[in-house]
Amino acid sequence: MGKAMVSPGLSELAQPVTAVGRGKVECLQKNRKKILFVTSELADLAKAGGLGDVSAALPRALGRFHSVRVLIPGYPQVISRGHPMEILCELEGYAGLPACQIGTMLLPDGLTVYVVLCPELYDRPGTPYGDEHGRDWPDNHIRFARFGLAAAALASGEVCADWQPDLVHAHDWPAGLAPAYMAWQGQRTPSVFTIHNLAYQGLCDLNCMPELGLPAEAATEQGMEFYGKLSFLKAGINYADHNTTVSRNYAREITTAEFGCGLEGLLKLKASTGGLTGIANGIDECWHPDSDSRHQWPDKKSNTRHVEAMFDLEPNDGPLFVIISRLVYQKGLDLIPQVAEVIIKAGGRLAILGQGEESVETMLTELAGRYPQRIGFHRGFNELDARRMFAGSDFLLMPSRYEPCGLSQSYAQCFGSLPIARRTGGLADTIKDGETGFLFDDSTAESFADAIVRATRVYRQPDLLEAMRRQAMNAPRYWHHAAKPYDKLYRKLINESLGKTGPAVRGSEHG
Ligand SMILES: Nc1ncnc2c1ncn2[C@@H]1O[C@H](COP(=O)(O)OP(=O)(O)O[C@H]2O[C@H](CO)[C@@H](O)[C@H](O)[C@H]2O)[C@@H](O)[C@H]1O
């Protein structure tokens, strides 16, 4: 098994001198830990939604405190980006999981990314999870078990002896088997599992056990058994040393039957023993009004005119509403046709960008056809258009049924576009009704329409609108601050694990 040395990333060498005094820098430097992020998306390379944003921004923000590296699968988008790749080693096949290689690449700002290279599993068109039509790959359990097992190999030091992580931070169900394989191998490296979305559970049949090389305990309630299936998400929750989710409110909500997706009992238990915490997402500093990257979006009116032209909307003085979203059940967009008249009557226009479930896409195409020049829909996603829409809009609509944290409402606020959102999950934590946006309580057209009417009233009072915009622009929390609770948590878990003399197989501690 060939292994090559990798040089440390620049961000890992960077001295955080601007943030703290010299003595403290040395102290921070001395205590830097090695943290491995295990994630199926990284916005720089492959992104299907908010997980990609967090996986890109959080390791960079944590670079002040720690040496953070990221592991992702080698999708075509990752490999074709042209960053030079160094092959570190080959990992043998295991049970039904094929052999793979681990490569490493350095991103331009110095972030080190490990890549699981296995063309038969990852070299496919489409999203990280499915084909171009949004259909999940039928072998996703193999694809992401291979991924989790590769993470366990990195954690053990087998891949890169000079960079063995002190802690593994796995994200969402695709990384759920990382803490599990680590536990079954008797590794003592502590792990954190973050739930970005409880509704995606990564389920497969119990009879996949031999293919995935799972021990018998995996099929128990204390393992990853979930109503007669195997749940990758439950594996992450049960085998990690600590669970987090992406807002305080969602951390509370998922312990209830309404939001717990059948896992509320387990999550309630974790919360009651201090094993589940809510750590609110931040947003990347590039969204800050003073950031260099903002200079191409100078004034709202010119961006508004650009969005109108993009979506073929009639230019008028009414409010411009936008939706920038994955088009899935979670986002509550089936309410849009029911509130369309309210928007039109107020002289408003609506521009929608996104892709996802076919039924939602068809519904939005029909809606745009019904209101030419007032409602426009573009199927797809592109970062530049998204920014232009945040910058040019007056209001962002987010009628989510549930929302673990949500990032789009904060991006909109950065540009003085006021979110109109359901009072749920992180939306309730990040929007102050009547101050930095508008909240409504029920997933009903009446409740939503009422908030839209309140917003259009504010739109007609320029002083009030301006005051709300200013407050909204100051509302978002940036990762610079938001990353601190993770630093604290990592140190606590690493210290606890150093003090532990427990049994070799950690899995049994988590029943
Ligand atoms: N079709 C598309 N393709 C690609 N990108 C698209 C897209 N449509 C929108 N986006 C972009 O994806 C991000 C959306 O992130 P959100 O956090 O609002 O929701 P998402 O449900 O994806 O994330 C989940 O994870 C995040 C991160 O923890 C939680 O905030 C959130 O509540 C949870 O549902 C934005 O950057 C947006 O511009």
From TrEMBL:
UniProt: ADP-alpha-D-glucose binding residues: K47
Record gene name: glgA
Protein origin, superkingdom: Bacteria
Top enzyme class: transferase
Domain Glycosyl transferase family: 314-456
Catalytic reactions of this protein: [(1->4)-alpha-D-glucosyl](n) + ADP-alpha-D-glucose = [(1->4)-alpha-D-glucosyl](n+1) + ADP + H(+)
Pathway noted in the entry: Glycan biosynthesis; glycogen biosynthesis
Record function comment: Synthesizes alpha-1,4-glucan chains using ADP-glucose.
Protein name: Glycogen synthase
EC number: 2.4.1.21
Record InterPro entries: Glyco_trans_1 (IPR001296), GS/SS (IPR011835), Starch_synth_cat_dom (IPR013534)
Keywords from the UniProt entry: Glycogen biosynthesis, Glycosyltransferase, Transferase
The UniProt record lists the keyword Transferase: yes
